[in-house]
Amino acid sequence: MHPILHIFLYNIVPILLMILAGYALGHFVDMHLPTLTKINFYLFVPAFTFTYLYTAEIGLDQRLTLLAAFLILVVNFLLGLVVSKALHFEAGLGEAFQNSLMFYNSGNVGVPLISLIYSTGFYASTGDESLLTLALTAQVMVLVVQNLSTNTLGFYNASRGQGKSIKEAIVKVLKMPTIYTIALAIILRFIPQLDLTTTPVWPVLEYLRNALVAVALMTLGVQLSKTDVKGIQWRVILAALLRLLGGPLVALGIIKILNLSGVTAQVLFISSSVPTAVNTALLAAECKNHPDFAAQVVLVTTLACPLTLIPVIYLAPQLFPLTLGV
Fold this sequence. Notes:
The chain has 13 helices and no strands. By secondary structure, it is mostly helical.
């Protein structure tokens, strides 16, 4: 089977089917969307963030990857800000528009995508198994930046878009447990006498972490069942184009500026082309800030990403060929 077809069938299709299951559930059963979003933000997302941050190997050589992922986030934020101001979007829509560009699906699409490419695709033709380890480590760095920023800046953006003052938006962010789990994970990493992975608490955290993808996607499906997806406006199409086509171009510029190469550059380039994060729709629903727009952007980018991923995956090894030491 061709790697691209394999990616579509085993990475994209399952995501679409989970959304469809949530859509069907929301259509035939009276699901309470606010409850679902709170379960995600107050239980599953903190567990997901904590486990990944606690176990990620972040050496000196990974700091540049973190910097690149952060700069990509900043440039996407500025791009969303400039475009929304130039087109005179009202404040709430502007904030939702920025979130749709900044936050992409680096976890439940990015991780399996990178794993497949470097284990079975033509990227693995060198036979060097260390490529997969290097690629996944780089992707975890992207995941950390995306996950931390979504639950701080993203939530702040959505709250401001709802019409709250800066103080009210900050208070809203401070009520989110994820920022405290971030601090806790970092502190516990520096206690060598304690290894949480060997305690009875760890399986519980893993169960909660593993539940996030399914529940988040099904929650999105429920939200879509309550959303008018027939009249997709040009703003949604614009956001989708900037996410799927503009995202890789932004990443390319940052990669060149930082003079990155090899596997790190390839992973940053590929992961920047994945769809808008499901969490942006959950944020919009939780803060009641243009949830229809956010849900439609996630839907359109998820449906369209197979078409844009193909050239990006093909170009990555040509733009950033592997060298000695990759």
